[in-house]
Specification:
Strands 4-3-2-1-5-6-7 form a 7-stranded parallel beta sheet, sandwiched between helices. Strands 9-8-10-11 form a 4-stranded mixed beta sheet, with helices on one face. The protein has 15 helices and 11 strands.
Amino acid sequence: MKRLALLGSTGSIGKNVIDVVKRLPESLNIRLLSTHSRIDLLLQQCQELRPDLAIVSGLDLERDQRKRFSDLGVEVWSGCEALEKAAGQADYDQLVNAIVGAAGFLPTLAAVRRGKSVALANKEALVIGGELVMQAAQTSNAEILPIDSEHSAIFQCLMGEAHQTIRTLYLTASGGPFRDLPASEFPAVTVEAALKHPNWSMGPKITIDSATLMNKGLEVIEAHWLFGVERDRIQVVVHPQSIIHSMVEFADGSIKAQLGLPDMRLPIQLALLFPHRLDSGLPHFSFHDHPQLTFAEPDLQKFKCLDLALKACDAGGMSPAVLNAANEAAVQAFLQRRIRFDHIPPLIEEALIVHRSGGKVDAEGLLASDRWARKMVEQRIAQQGKF
Ligand code: NDP
Ligand code: MG
């Protein structure tokens, strides 16, 4: 029985993790749940799953709110440092990080430093501090198991293979809802249209990132750190059907691909059960339903966010942290209808250009760059006024 600490249990990945755990009650058990601010949903989850500890990271709880948890026999912690503290001190076997955004970085680092197994959905942790996290994992012998479907696919393709035989990692991308929309129409893109992903149902931030292709850029950086492969050997392939989740080409020219339905419960289950595979009753794939798989090159002129992410990865240092924070701030402003869809890339580009590189690439330095980039984007939006 593996005891899980699930950060971000009220989100899209969090709910899928709970679904997988309920399908495999003899193998998996949740001991910790967390929300940023959806207390009622967290209470429902606590009632059902009876963890030892619940965390509300975005609020300081009043006494009557605490009582609602203690009435269920669940200890509750609140506030912005509770997640890092829990990752570093609580009793669990595997941390499942399903938080969105930079907030996932410090809890990941805390778990890895303890040598804990981490099932990682929070790609931002590796985008910001991939080098630190991977170094800490090496020192402590912690395993990091990817939940992101592309990285799970590559992880599976690499099983039994020698690292030096990797020629190219191919990350597949659906191309998002605006794959065929001319860039001239981007200024008119609404929040509702950007939130409609053709193949996946996900939280709002990653759905917008999928529409700008920033998501694929973040995934290139994630793959670079996770698999220790140079950026110029990682290629993005547009594959609108989202059936091949990614591929690896080896020295002899042979290519391995991992296929399956676009259902996050598959990579989640592998990360939670690894190295075992069990039938949990998830829907099966049929080749007859998917007679055509197609591939194309991404358009870096049209999807500037992908291009910016590749450049930030090449620049290294603080650049990926600046890219990520500027993107988070710009996406939030777009979701709040304060900027247009086509305003997102120039805000990120400006942050990358204006940011003075240098400074120590430690957790403190990376988080200072993160704060700087968010502030710069907000200032620029305020200066631009209403559009
Ligand atoms: P959601 O927005 O659906 O859920 C995010 C979760 O994190 C919620 O529990 C939310 O709490 C919590 N949260 C939000 N902000 C903070 C914060 N500042 N500090 C602590 N907790 C916070 O996101 P997703 O589930 O879609 O994505 C989670 C992560 O997984 C992201 O990094 C994403 O890139 C990655 N991922 C997601 C995929 C998907 O299919 N959804 C696929 C591959 C990767 P609350 O409910 O209170 O807001
Ligand atoms: Mg992905």
